[in-house]
Amino acid sequence: MKVTVIGGGLAGCEAAWQLAKYGIDVDLYEMKPDKKTPAHSLDALGELVCSNSLRADTLENGAGLLKAEMRLLGSLVTECADATRVPAGGALAVDRVGFAKMMTEKIENNPKINVIHEEITKIPEDGIVIVASGPLTSDALSESIKELCGGNQLYFFDAAAPIVTYESIDREKTYRKARYDRGTADYINCPMTKEEYLRFYNELINAETAELHEFENQKVFEGCMPVEVMAKRGEDTLTFGPLKPVGLEHPETGKQYYAVVQLRQDDKDGTLFNMVGFQTHLKFGEQKRVFSMIPGLENMDIVRYGVMHRNTFLHSPGFLNASYEVIKRPGLYFAGQITGVEGYVESASSGIVAGISAARKVLGKEPLIFPSLTATGALAKHVSAFEGKDFQPMNINFGIIDSLDYRVKNKKERYTKISERALDTMKKIIEEEL
Q: Given CB 3.0 to 4.6 Å as the disulfide criterion, which of 220, 291, 377, 429 pairs with 372?
């Protein structure tokens, strides 16, 4: 039996990869390059449309644990990310183009995966299907999904940060350093005095934004909030957020600044840098004008302006189970950010689970439910069994993973022990079930 996977993003590629590992033929549908959303620029599969960072890569962080579990499960995303890594301190950041190129080559060269560049406008009624069309699902397919779930479909707005050239950064005014000197000094830091920050802040909150015609009620996801929206919450909001100066004292003088803007390497050769935390939907001219007020960026050359776009996600609790399968239609699965997981690695993780679940369905095996003492299982539980009134996209975090059954006061030690327990559990599952 052949399985249909809709969407060639991180979740769709992971799902197809897992199915192929089980010897199952896959038709992977991707509407690019013939049709793209406003957030996409590459023709490749597995494109990272926002940041080039897959976040922290240590076991003291939920994202680090999730990636460790994914590596154990044979993740394509972590394999390609590790191979295209760029300097980013304790985080796993990648060469955006190199990563997508490797993802595409791996998928296209897999004999069990047939990539079809065609838009799917309606969910197939027969066979085993995984919908991994992403938060930028096309209007036609969105309508088909809405019919399936009775209109119980939500959305929020997401934003991407500008990318600037390294050669346009004034290195006389900036310095290299990682926060608290964790890892190597991979970030370029643009320091600001209080006077410089306040001038920048006042221009930022009064700058002109691009109009969003699609919706009247603008919902903004807290984890990827436009910098100008965050700034309007108060004068000090940015200095306790993306411009936090703590741990970024000047490496030579020891001076601590009022605010610091960080730039993270975006490509393998170090020619492009991403403005960390500067997701925005300011008009392009306003981005150039306001962001040029940041010390060191007066003459910056922006190669990709920040953009804002709609993200669509389902009200998954009661609609999906912990295998990411539609409860009322067995054999139909959803994966990726459309399910209500938030972030690159979270999306990829859901694709792995959906792929394994669909493969077991084809092979006549019982569903495998990952326990919520693993990061993988905790995400699936959040999506399928959230009990609050306001279901919102969720990054992986230790708050949704089962606690230890004994007390560990030190947070770092506690998180490490939770991670060790999760990895031991995952290894046992792989040995006994996979």
A: 377
CA 179 vs CA 91, 189, 262, 289, 430: distances in Å: 12, 10, 10, 28, 36
Q: What percent of the chain has pLDDT over 70?
A: 93
For the chain, domains (ranges, CATH) are 3-157+310-433 (3.50.50.60), 163-306 (2.40.30.260)
The CA distance from 116 to 377, in Å, is 31
Residue 37 phi, psi dihedral angles, 5° rounding: -90, 165
- Measure Cα distances from 361 to 9, 148, 311, 336, 368 in Å: 23, 21, 30, 19, 10
Chain segment 341-358, per-residue pLDDT in tens: 989 999 999 999 999 999
Asked if residue 371 has a cis previous peptide bond (ω within 30° of 0), the answer is no
Q: How large is the C-alpha radius of gyration of the chain?
A: 22
Cα separation, 382 vs 38, in Å, equals: 29
List the beta bridge partners of residue 114.
Answer: 27
Calculate mean pLDDT across residues 28-55.
84
List, for residues 121-145, the tens digit of each pLDDT value.
999 999 999 999 987 788 888 888 8
- The Cα–Cα gap between 11 and 70 comes to 12
Residue 344 and residue 334: Cα distance in Å, rounded? 16
Structure tokens at 348: 């990829």
- 208 Cβ partners below 8 Å, 6+ apart? 282, 283, 286
pTM beyond 0.85, yes or no: no
